[in-house]
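Q: Convert this sequence to structure tokens.
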Amino acid sequence: MSGLLTVCKREWSAYFSTPVAYVFVLIFLMMSAALTFYLGNFYDRGQADLQPFFNFHPWLYLFFMPAIAMGLWSQERQLGTIELLLTLPLTQAQVVSGKFLAAWLFAALALVLTFPLWLTVNYLGDPDNGVILTSYLGSWLMAGAFIAVGCCMSALSRNQIVAFILTVLICFVLMLSGFPMVLDMFRAWGSDRVVDFVAGLSFITHFQALSRGVVDLRDVLYFLLLITVWLFATGEVLSIKKAR
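A:
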């Protein structure tokens, strides 16, 4: 555990060693507010809730979370520090988990800083704060899934831009898998079980379930399992590259 925390602290400090982290958080907050109040018609809806805010999270994360994760391993390889990192008296699982945790906590920080929107809806009306809290939990879990995919792609490619693009493409496919137009393609030749399986892969399907205020263990386990699978894949990629 101490090794994991050491790597996490190292990576966390690296985020704030340059102005990039501050710029990232600022842009995320500005985009969240703009989408909520303008495209989300926050005031015109006449309801005191944060549904317009959370509706845009999957699409915001499609670009912001890969940007957080793209340098986790690519930058280490570019700087030539990955060999040193992997030869430290730490297990590979600790290094991978520590890097992921730092990125996930950074995403949590950006999410926590949107609290003025929560205060706003409580000032304007009497929202269901339990639903809002559950939506925040679902949003953070979804962010972790995006970052885990990005972590694997970063380990796979030396180039950060390539890692970013690959992450966006994979996450975009996982998002679209729950859309009717995609499911209709599978209904044309597959059974209901196949269609349900494809629908169950969608980030949006599980996030929307949590954003309705219902904490279904299946939705939570989906994101946690997805994170675990992609982090395991990251370790396998690093092992192969290390062996070479």
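Residues 112 and 136 are 9 Å apart (CA to CA).
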